[in-house]
Amino acid sequence: MLFESSLSSPDTKGSAPFIRLIIPFTAGILLQYYLDLNVYAFLLVVPLLIFSGLYRQFTAAWRFRLKVWQALVLWLSLFFVGALRLYMADLRHHTAFYPQFYAPGDMMLLEITGPPQVKTNSISAVAQLKYIRHNGHIISPKGKVMVYADKRLKDSIRWGSLLYSNNTLMPIRNRAESSFDYQQYCADRGIYHQVYIPANGYHPAGIAPVNRISLFLYRASGFCIATFNRYLGSGPEAGMAAALLIGDRQGLDKDLVRDYSNTGIVHVIAISGMHLSLLYASLLLCLSWLPTGRRADYLKALLVLLFLWGFTFLTGASASVLRAAVMFTATTLGQFVLARKSNIFNALAASAFILLAVNPYLIMDTGFQLSYLAVLSIVLFQPKIYNLLHCSRKWLDYLWQMVALTLAAQLLTTPLCLYYYHQFPTWFLLANLVAVPLSTVIIYGEILLLLLTPLPLLASWIGRCVHLLIWFMDLLVKWIGALPLALITNIPCNKAMLVLLYLALAALALYWYHRFREARLTVICCLNFTLVALLYLQWRPANKPYHVQHYTLQHGKRLVSITTALPDVAPAKKFRTNYIFLSRNPPVDIRQIAAFYDFDTLVIGPGNSKRRIEQWKNDCYVLTLRFISVPDQGAYVINF
């Protein structure tokens, strides 16, 4: 079977050490993320390490008695290591963080670390602070800044440029008239200040050497985009081709992105693990003709890894592609090199451990969570769903594999999607059956197009075929998105319901694999409790009407003040207002507010927690809502 062959069965036996390692490591990261422990708290790990060092000096009898304590010490050590890793990843905790060494007027040496982007009136680029001359001392600080320069300098400032400037660093703020959360966007990348450089406000200091691999990837990405624009035209098809192959979404049509999102197949245009999983399974099928043996297995592993990582770098090596590449690298090495295809869970845990060790902030990334849940769900449930029906015809069996894979991937990701987005695409199965095979063929066609670029005639024919396939796929997705009840919105799902749904799924897995009667009862009870909670949340607003507290301003404008929680279910018709004012730290979600109110501007007032303000701002950016943060931008005057 195509997809079963690409993933190890969870029924197999074997050790899984990384599962025992990832749990305390992740718990430590989460604790540090929410509590922001002081560095002195990590001194608690010292006696644990001393105990680990002295453990082997004990006699065999004492080691047996202290075996439980050794495991506890290991868990606590990994717990503190996870917390310490997140603490160290926060640039603001670094002793050389630049704000403490900088004063307005200080001379700085900046290195442009990426390709500058040309905007309407200026150019922008990220710069590394190489040196600061502060109080007569030359200091090598830690940190990056955003550089804005006069547009006339677009030919002078480029990747690798070294610039001397004494222009003042300013904290990055959001513009009141813009809905783009630029401040949060930069903070996520360790950038907290910006500097504007006029045409005569800097001194060039040469060109720094640019990393060859990064430069190669940048040029390869530009070559792909130029090729698609040449052979597919400058329409939406070229933008879709760039998104499918290299993850560049700048040329995508916004309405088309919404159609893909509403049909539950936005992963198709996000270069997600689905792409690499299909390619991985296809590779195993193509290599199945090779003979068995250790040398053949090594050759298979080499070919699979070369293809996977070649495709990863071709797509720009984005975070989502790297996640999938690490997962399948671990699976490939375990299956072909180590001859241990016994435990896919250990491979998943190992890849997660590596990625979180490199960037612990990934634990809060929705894409990271959904990526691992989708793969885990496929491993757990796809074989069981597939075995429910046996098809004699090959084409029907292949279709059933696709259905089983789609249903399996949806099981563990649906609760989290309901919790985050409160909507469900009812035609997700049909959309996946259409888009996934088509997108796979299109990706192969795009790679063939790039390879045939030296032959313009053949490339032109391939380009026409790819253009037609993309047009046809977009047409089908739009049609599916227009079907009745294509998207169910405003589905209530709180944390309690999320836990109940995952308990039900865990019990379902236990029942399928071990036939525990208690597991079947647990599934029924959890689903019943979830249904009761859903009915309660649906009917509660009808029993207790929600009164909108609003004020009338000049020229008939309205302002709604929100200081407490909103009901869990939105009304049938939104309340129209011009302003939403958030104060007193209300426990509300921006998506929930958008479901209740049709508004122009969201005003975040003082008296709200910093963490909640950052979450609101990030959600406003994702939903493209106009907002104003008074704690960040100062007073905002509304005339009554």
Write a structural description.
The chain crosses the membrane at residues 15-34, 39-56, 68-88, 264-290, 302-322, 343-363, 398-421, 427-453, 465-489, 495-514, 521-539. It is a multi-pass membrane protein. InterPro entries: ComEC_N (IPR004477), Competence_DNA_uptake (IPR052159), DUF4131 (IPR025405). Keywords: Cell membrane, Membrane, Transmembrane, Transmembrane helix. The chain is α/β, with parallel strands linked by helices and 640 residues long. It has helices at residues 17-35, 45-55, 60-65, 67-89, 182-187, 212-232, 236-246, 254-262, 273-286, 294-314, 319-337, 344-358, 366-386, 394-421, 428-451, 456-481, 495-514, 517-543, 590-596, 610-622, 630-633, and strands at 107-112, 117-118, 122-134, 137-139, 144-150, 161-165, 170-171, 191-197, 203-207, 424-425, 487-488, 550-552, 558-562, 575-576, 579-582, 597-598, 601-604, 627-629. Strands 1, 2, 3, 4, 5, 6, 7, 8 and 9 form a nine-stranded mixed sheet that branches. β17 (601-604), α20 (610-622) and β18 (627-629) form a beta-alpha-beta unit. The longest helix is centred in the middle third of the chain and has 28 residues, at 394-421. It is globular. 32% of the residues are buried. Mean pLDDT is 79; it is low at 1-9 and 176-180.
